[in-house]
């Protein structure tokens, strides 16, 4: 299947942040990870989320346009507690933002910014829980899937607007103290990889080192601007999820007769991850009080692919909800095929992780070993005090 056509047909954001970040059960246990942690006290006063579809909890449901990717139809949300219906999450239930928030002592991810705006609940929620600005299809670059999402730069501007209203409500001092202790979760970049790769394929060419260098430079410039702007507004704790192997999602595997991963796309992600690691180390060195935790989703994903059964999975290459080969020739929607045990599949649809995969990923982020989460894990970041 031609990648460019497949991406256009898919319409669902091709994002991998936190998508394949599962460590084997043995490794989690060795790292002291509880398999089913109970309710915990809040570790931070609020969580602010910026990213793409693996973190989106419904913002895209409020965007106009027929090409906007939305998870507003069955079978999305089939395992969401109590209501068992679509919530705007690209998951059969909770997504990785929900499980990260749970580990921080919240019931689930903070609500979507556009939903809160629509119901006049933005500022009370922003002050007491946080806000999710994440948008399916979003990229680090404004040009990525332009017009069908809220790009990273606009998410930062939306936060700036929110902060202004918060200051008007409770004063600058209170907001400054709140933001310094709050948790800023980032997960974005995979859509940029897909758009770049699809453009190269459309031109029937392979990206040169110079092409990749320029691409990375533009991405890192925008990423740095976002982090720096949030820092200027008072953010201090940044939880960053890097890119997983973008060449291993079911819809991409479909292009291979053997269902193999696309190594060139994976290497593109590896290159960006290296640049991101350098960026965050540099920002921490020059911005006093900035603390960060960088989750290596690529490395932890490879561990899961190497031994899916160790993490409790029976299938690591096909969609649970879909149709055709690898469950990826058709979209996840009413009437599609559903796997028998959704917790045994790494992938929920042909792009996104299952609820179980997201749960294990969040556990890894919080309690994982230093070679997968650096320079500190999410739990240590939450406890950080400048």
From TrEMBL:
<dbReference type="Pfam" id="PF00657">
    <property type="entry name" value="Lipase_GDSL"/>
</dbReference>
<dbReference type="GO" id="GO:0016788">
    <property type="term" value="F:hydrolase activity, acting on ester bonds"/>
</dbReference>
<dbReference type="GO" id="GO:0016042">
    <property type="term" value="P:lipid catabolic process"/>
</dbReference>
<keyword id="KW-0443">Lipid metabolism</keyword>
<feature type="signal peptide">
    <location>
        <begin position="1"/>
        <end position="31"/>
    </location>
</feature>
<dbReference type="InterPro" id="IPR051058">
    <property type="entry name" value="GDSL_Est/Lipase"/>
</dbReference>
<keyword id="KW-0732">Signal</keyword>
<dbReference type="InterPro" id="IPR001087">
    <property type="entry name" value="GDSL"/>
</dbReference>
<dbReference type="InterPro" id="IPR035669">
    <property type="entry name" value="SGNH_plant_lipase-like"/>
</dbReference>
<keyword id="KW-0442">Lipid degradation</keyword>
<protein>
    <recommendedName>
        <fullName>GDSL esterase/lipase</fullName>
    </recommendedName>
</protein>
<keyword id="KW-0378">Hydrolase</keyword>
